[in-house]
Write a structure and sequence with these properties.
Blueprint (H helix, E strand, L loop, with lengths): L2 H7 L4 E5 L11 E8 L2 H13 L4 E4 L5 E2 L8 E5 L9 E3 L4 E5 L4 H10 L2 E2 L11 H6 L3 E2 L2 E2 L4 E7 L4 E5 H4 L14 E8 L1 E2 L2 H18 L21 H4 L14 H7 L6 E2 L2 E3 L7 E3 L5 H19 L8 E2 L2
Parallel strand pairs: 2-5, 3-5, 4-18
Antiparallel strand pairs: 1-2, 6-7, 7-13, 8-14, 9-10, 11-12, 11-13, 15-16, 16-17
């Protein structure tokens, strides 16, 4: 289908949009056709139109933790970011029940619930991206995950809009059913506990300060590149090679493993591991998805050779 045809279906669509500028990794070519949607209704309508007209599409949101190809396909790229001023994008009930639209930034959600004296999400402060993206990857930090206080998720399954409960979501470490099902995450319900706004604000600011020291402002990276291996999934033989003092909450920091094998400073094209953390790959300028994959493959092999542990990417490569 031609751009002209797409324009007739989506008059607000844009052509030749740089995807690199819409991600924290600054990787990606030019999308032939791009559509921005500001609410879940518009997202579902766009997907239904694409299905009816048999147009392939890619949906993305905050642009963190994702990598686009240097030469995007001829698909429709749908960018879902909820208008933070929208009246129904976020509601907080008197008993701590929260509803939030998936396209809202995680930062906006955390700031609002803290202002209302609701606890349970403050440790996620400073994590980029949207609420929906955080749910898909079961984002977490400092012993807290977004699924901890989650009640249910509103989805569009390709046919109807419906709710799925927490059990159905199959949350695990940095994982959920949403990585394996063609479902769109539209909204999320939480039940948060009471807390002190002043105390929660202080904790939030402290965590943001820690994260900013690690992820320096302007650093072109997707966040932690690899997941931290779970001790329960590592063989006894491999575990003997790991410094037990490095294990945190049943996980082996991928950064520690990578630093042991000399990952810091390694380069592939214009992609490099930063010199202050083994699990951060940054774009030096002009880096490509291919370079990122090649560098990641080298790093995984080094850890495999030294520890017998297979690292798994936390970032997702989009078509």
């Amino acid at each position: 289908m031609t751009v002209k045809n797409l324009k007739q279906i989506w008059p607000t669509g844009q052509t030749k949009v740089s995807l690199a500028e819409l991600t924290t990794f600054k990787i990606g070519g030019v999308a032939p056709f791009y559509l921005a949607v500001k609410d879940k209704q518009s997202l579902v309508e766009a997907v239904k139109k694409a299905q009816t007209t048999k147009i392939s599409y890619v949906i993305f949101a905050g642009g963190s933790n994702v990598v686009f190809p240097g030469r995007p396909s001829t698909k429709l790229y749908i960018h879902y970011l909820t208008n933070p001023l929208a009246k129904d994008a976020l509601t907080i009930g008197p008993t701590g029940q929260v509803y939030v639209e998936a396209g809202l930034s995680l930062a906006s959600l955390i700031k609002k619930v803290i202002s209302q004296g609701r606890a349970g999400l403050e440790s996620l402060s400073g994590i980029p991206g949207t609420v929906g993206g955080a749910v898909v990857g079961n984002a977490g930090a400092y012993g807290q995950s977004i699924s901890d206080h989650l009640l249910a998720v509103e989805i569009f399954d390709g046919q109807v809009i419906r709710w799925v409960d927490r059990v159905t979501c199959r949350f695990n470490y940095r994982d959920s059913i949403f990585k394996y099902k063609p479902w769109l995450v539209l909204g999320v319900k939480f039940k948060l506990t009471k807390g002190n706004t002043e105390t929660l604000t202080k904790k939030s600011r402290q965590i943001i300060k820690i994260r900013q020291a690690k992820y320096k402002p302007g650093l072109a990276c997707p966040g932690s590149y690899f997941k931290n291996p779970l001790v329960s999934k590592v063989s006894a033989r491999s575990l003997k090679l790991v410094d037990p003092t490095k294990i945190i909450d049943g996980k082996i920091p991928a950064g520690y493993l990578l630093e042991v094998v000399g990952a810091k400073g390694l380069k592939q094209g214009q992609m490099a591991v930063v010199d202050f953390h083994g699990n951060l790959i940054m774009n030096l300028g002009g880096g490509t998805a291919s370079d990122a994959k090649k560098l990641a493959t080298r790093l995984k092999q080094k850890v495999q050779d030294r520890f017998g542990i297979t690292l798994e990417e936390e970032v997702r490569f989009l078509p």
